[in-house]
Specification:
7 helices; 35% strand; alpha+beta; 9-stranded antiparallel β-sheet; globular
């Protein structure tokens, strides 16, 4: 979930109410924080064992904690992604050892989906896995040829070592421009109090 926050204190106070997720059947973890590039933008990442547990929670338990944040944000964008594979090692939705999350959201051309996924696995993953301070990540897919790469980093300084020129070289090798119609990304400074 990504949104523009209009009442930061109220949003943060409401965000802590999501601790109620603990004990929910199928809930695996949640974390989030503020965009480093746009200080009024918040990101929240929630992980569920499967869609059945998620849908059950949305039908019966979502509205109470959500009401705590009513009026504190606008322009919410919520996307559901199915896990495809890990980036680096076995992904776990724990946020206590990470300082920042890098998120990349791609809209991929229909005829290039298989190539895009293969390049993520064979080009991007090894490069990210070899980056100092990169803890773990995941590659997910949503209907409509949308993909999410979420990577967790030990610190912002370590994430900064992942240089733009290296990314450009990897992008050329992976033929990213041929695969991707649209790409948005962000670096999120995690807020420890939002971790559930």
């Amino acid at each position: 979930m990504r949104c523009t926050v209009v009442d930061r204190r109220g949003f943060e106070r409401g965000q802590r109410k999501w601790a109620e997720l603990l004990g929910e059947p199928g809930f695996l973890g949640q974390g989030g924080g503020w965009s480093r590039g746009r200080p009024d933008v918040a990101h929240v990442f929630a992980f569920w064992e499967n869609r059945v547990f998620y849908d059950s929670f949305m039908a019966r338990g979502h509205d109470r904690p959500a009401a705590e944040q009513a009026g504190t944000y606008r322009d919410p964008q919520v996307k559901l992604f199915e896990y495809r594979f890990d980036v680096k090692t076995g992904f776990e939705p724990h946020f206590t050892d990470a300082d920042v999350v890098r998120v990349a959201h791609s809209q991929v051309r229909e005829d290039r989906v298989d190539h895009f996924a293969l390049m993520q696995e064979k080009v991007w993953n090894p490069a990210m896995a070899g980056s100092p301070g990169m803890l773990r990540g995941l590659f997910g897919e949503a209907p409509g040829h949308e993909f999410l790469v979420l990577s967790m980093w030990q610190s912002g300084a370590e994430r900064g070592k992942y240089r733009p020129e290296s990314a450009a070289r990897l992008s050329a090798r992976a033929e990213t421009e041929r695969d991707v119609e649209a790409l948005t990304g962000d670096v999120v400074q995690l807020e420890p109090s939002w971790t559930v």
